[in-house]
Amino acid sequence: xxxxxxxxxxxxxxxxxxxxxxxxxxxxxxxxxxxxxxxxxxxxxxxxxxxxxxxxxxxxxxxxxxxxxxxxxxxxxxxxxxxxxxxxxxxxxxxxxxxxxxxxxxxxxxxxxxxxxxxxxxxxxxxxxxxxxxxxxxxxxxxxxxxxxxxxxx
Length: 154
Known about the structure:
Blueprint lengths: L1 E5 L5 H18 L9 H12 L3 E8 L2 E12 L10 E10 L8 H15 L4 E4 L6 H6 L16
């Protein structure tokens, strides 16, 4: 039976597995063959995940980690459409090969939407792969135009 749980920073062993699964997600999405993330990247990731500004859900079956999904919470200046300024961004929705197309990502996304609703979030954004887009559309996400970004020199 598949179980969806919220990651708890006090459960160090499970939380470490969730963090490692995030690196697996990033490698898969970016087409990387090996873990290229340096210690600063991993330290910053660990600090962020422990900050409380996010919630991560993960799926297991018989003790095997199948996938994870994270929602990051931010507050911006309120707008007419979003008077609280409370927003969220979904990241790293991932299910390992061999476990896909079993409704796992949908279950994790439902948990994320519920968590965000409980927190009074008025806007949830995400970046979708072509593979993930149909799921997000089924649960109510709408496509938006390309955003804008500024890349600063290091």
